[in-house]
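pasting for the record
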Amino acid sequence: MRRRSDHSPTRRVSRAVGDEGVLALMCDSTNAMRDGVSPSEEEVSTSLTKIIEDAKGRVAITTFSSNVGRIRSIAKASAAAGREVLLLGSSMKRVCDVARDVGLMEGLNPFIAEDEFGYIPRDKVVVILTGSQGRSRAALAKISHDEMRNVALTAGDTVVFSSRAIPGNEKAINDIKNGLVEQGIHIVTDSEALVHVSGHPRRNELQQMYQWTRPQMLVPVHGEAAHLTAQAELGLQSGIKTVPRVRNGDILRLAPGPATVIGTAPHGLIYKDGGLIGDFEEMGIGERRKLSFAGHVAVNVILDAPTTSPPTRSSFRSACPSSTTRARDMNDTLYDAVLGAVESIPRGKRKDIAMVTEAVRRAIRGTANDVWGKKPVVTVFINKL
C-alpha cells in the first residue's frame, strides 16, 4: 500500500469494504517494525532519473526480476535521460515478455538486443539486469567476474542496486560488489540514494488500513516471528480486539465461534531435483548435505564364524581422503578400526548382526574423526559364511 490522498480510489474502495463489514484482515507484517510511510514508486523513478542523467558512463541497474513496476520506472527514467535500455538475465526477459503480453509494458521504448550493446556510446545506455541478491549465475555476478560474452562494464561506469538484501544473501551480494569495485565501477545502494522502495506497508500505513477496513480481527501474516508479533501488538494498540497467533502451517478457523487454530497443513520448502519434486525428507536433502562435506564410507564385513572368528579382510569404498595425517592408507586405518570393534564384542554375541553393525559404524566414524576431523556417513554390510 502506498501513501494516498483522502480521496484516492484505494481509500474509497477500502472504506466501502469496511462499511460492508470485515471479519478478518490478513495483513503483511514485513515492515511492521518500521515507523512512517513508505516512499512512492514515483519518487524512486525521479531519483533514478537524476542518477542516470548525472552518470558519465554506462549505468547498470539490478532489481528483482518480478518487480515490473520498478522495471517500468527504470525504463522511463532512462528514456527521460536519453538512453537506450538493454534487458539482461533470463528471468528478467521472461517476466517482461509476460508483462508485455498482458499490456503492462505499453508506452515504453523497445529494448535493444544484447549484440547492439557494444555499438552504443557509454553515456547512452542503461542495462536492467538480474543479480540483486548475489546469485552466482545471474547476469550481474557474471559481469563482476567479466564473464559475459557481449556485455561488460569498465572503470567509471555505475551499478545501482535498486533492491534491498534478503537476509542471508549479504555475503554473496558483497562478493559481487567487491568484484565491481575492483574494476573501478561506482556502486549506488539504497543507503546512498532513493533507489528502492519496499512493497510492504510500514506502521502508519498499517494503521491507516485498519481505520479504513475496521476488521473484527487481525491475522498478521508474511514475515518472521518478530514482524508478526510487532503487527499483532500494533493491531491491539489500534483497538482491534481479536488478533490470533498463527505461524506457518497453522489452519485457522475464523468462524463460527472464536478464531481457533484447528490443525496444521504441509508447509516448508519444496525441492526440485531433475524430474523429481519433494520435501526435505523425501528428497534426502539432509543426508546428501552430509555427504557433501563429510564423505561416505561403505564397508562389507565377512565373518567366517561369528561365535569364534574375527572378520576376514573387509572391503571398503569411500569418498574420503585416501591417506591419514600419518601418511597411512585410510582404508588400512579403517580396517584396523573394524577389526578392533568386532574383536571387542564377546564371541558369543557376534551373532547379533545389529550389534556388530552398530559397533563397526561407530568405530569407522570415530576413527575417521580422529585422523581427519570429520565423521563420514557410513554404510555397513555384514555377511556370514
